Amino acid sequence: MHEDHERALKALAARGRLRALAPRRGIDFSSNDYLGLGASRELAEAISEALARGVPVGAGGSRLLRGNDPEHEALEEEAARFFGAETALYMGGGFAANTAIFATLPQRGDIIVHDALIHASAHDGMRMSKAEHVAAAHNDPNDFADAINKWRAAGGTGRVWIAIESLYSMEGDTAPIPAFDQLARGSDAVLIIDEAHATGVFGPQGRGLATSLEGSPHVVSLHTCGKALGVMGALVLAPRTLRDFLVNRARPFIYATGPSPLMAAGVRAALRLSASSPQRREMLMDRIEAFGRALRDNCGINASGSQIQPVIVKSDKRAVAIAEALQAQGYDVRAVRPPTVPEGTARLRVSLTLNASAEDTLSFIDALAYELGRPAP
Out of 72, 114, 223, 227, which one is annotated catalytic? Predict the structure, then answer.
């Protein structure tokens, strides 16, 4: 009955691309819990306090029905102030929020010019959008400008939407945000910035890499709450008109059960921690610097400069083999293969978090250097 599916799975396995769920095991070099807040005493106490004052675990319905809890609205007010935006909208996750942005805000006759390495959620949203969309070379504002000019020359008259990430989840590199802002202003474009992996880690009080642009009428940003903030959900920061449009037209918002009010209370606590406790960010930055030096010295690999470090080995099967060897030594690092990354760039995605000690990080480098030096399977 399911022969086609079985054949497809066997083909993935033969190419070293079969995915499977694996439990947490070993020292964390794979999560997005960059600041180690996910299991922190501070957030546990905030959740306990919220439960004690009667905050419900479940929303019970769409936020447009009975699922709109006071905790959602309190979070949105605090988040708008914290990030410096006009408004915020809390949704259940970054994937749904990003999909909603791209599927809903650009209109028929518009064009979305997006970075070639932008997240899968943006691609899913663009597939649902009525607007045209075109990829531009990674982190190349000139190629974005060329795409816009070509579209205009061919008769395009609608709004331009420029879509980038501030920190790329598989490359670990950052976008030239001032150059993209200049391009957006000069093109009368809206700039969509996915801050998912920068939120909590970079910028004043962890407000991200594009914090100076928040509140601008031409900027929409996304801040996820399940990575460095250690909770779950996502915040869309936007001018009020665009927020209201999402509430009225975004299907991933309208037809989804509202996020847990308890998690909204947790995000409020995480934002306050981000504002008041810079020590975790400072510790992570020290870890990133030490890791980068050791990576260059021991492995001959240039550091990304962020908490995300790709180790590209090209071969899908070799990436899996190295990851499994490191896992057997107690290091939880995972292989990432196409189509998540471009063909021929299979890699280990090494994630630096405060869940691993400084000593763990340096011993991991030694193990990585040994495995990279072994012959390919």
Answer: 227
Identify residue 136 by its one-letter amino acid code.
A
Catalytic residue (one of 72, 114, 119, 133): 119
Would strands 132-136 and 111-115 be described as parallel, antiparallel, or unpaired?
Answer: parallel
**DSSP string covering 327-338:** HHTTEE-EEE-T
For the chain, residues classed under CATH 3.40.640.10 are 55-276
Give me the pLDDT at residue 375, please.
Answer: 65
User: Residue 174 gets which letter from DSSP?
Assistant: B
Determine which one of 28, 30, 32, 260 is catalytic: 32
My answer on whether omega of the bond before 339 falls inside 30° of 0, hence cis, is: yes
Predicted TM-score (pTM) above 0.85: yes
Pick the CATH number of 22-39+278-373 from 3.30.565.10, 3.90.1150.10, 3.30.465.10, 3.40.50.1000: 3.90.1150.10
165 counts as catalytic = yes
77 is catalytic: no
The fold for domain 55-276 equals: Aspartate Aminotransferase; domain 2 (3.40.640)
Q: Quick: pLDDT tens for 95-136.
A: 999 999 999 999 999 999 999 999 999 999 999 999 999 999
